[in-house]
Amino acid sequence: MKKKSLAALCLIAVLLLGILWRLQAERTNRKPLERSGFLFDTVIAVSLYDKQDETVLDEAFQLLEHYEEVFSPTKTDSELYRMNHRGSGVTTWKASPAMLDMVKLGLRYSELS
Questions:
Q1: Does residue 101 contact residue 109 with C-beta atoms inside 8 Å?
Q2: In terms of domains, do 48 and 2 share one?
Q3: pTM of the model as a whole
Q4: Is 101 part of a structural domain of the chain?
Q5: Are residues 20 and 52 in the same domain?
Q6: Domain ranges, residue 23
Q7: Cα(33)–Cα(52) distance, rounded to whole angstroms?
Q8: Is 81 within 8 Å of 74 (Cβ atoms)?
Q9: DSSP tag of 30
Q10: Do 70 and 38 belong together in one domain?
Q11: Helix (H, G, I), strand (E, B) or coil at 37
């Protein structure tokens, strides 16, 4: 009786390993979802290997576009460009939360280095 139970257990283990191996092979053979765009004066490419969900790419590019609206040094309608090109007599500036967070992070890293 023990031999039959052990044989059945070994068979189940082999079947499970075979199924897992097959699933992994299918996953690694799957082509990634890819998208590219021109942002921050360069080509940006995003490849998604884990999931086959276009909404992840949509959200990634929405975030990149938002960051470009705030932080682009060359787009005339970005917050950073407007701040850098304000008049010489302008001494105050109302910054967005994203810009404030980035300045704080930059100051923190400058202190650390």
A1: no
A2: no
A3: 0.62
A4: no
A5: no
A6: 1-30
A7: 6
A8: yes
A9: S
A10: yes
A11: strand
- DSSP secondary structure of 38-74: EETTEEEEEEE-S---HHHHHHHHHHHHHHHHHH-SS
- Per residue in 72-104, pLDDT (tens digit) is 999 999 999 998 899 888 888 889 999 999 999
32, 54 contact by CB (below 8 A): no
pLDDT in tens, 19-62: 777 777 666 667 888 999 999 899 999 988 877 888 999 999 99
Domain count along the chain: 2
- Gap between the Cα atoms of 61 and 94, Å rounded: 26
Say how far apart CA 28 and CA 52 lie, in whole Å.
Answer: 13
Beta-carbon contacts of residue 65 (< 8 Å; ≥ 6 apart): 39
64 contacts 54 by C-beta, under 8 angstroms = no
Residue 3: predicted pLDDT: 63
Of the pLDDT bands very low, low, confident and very high (cuts 50, 70, 90), residue 1 is low
Look at the block and give the residue holding tokens 């897992």.
20
pLDDT at 35: 93
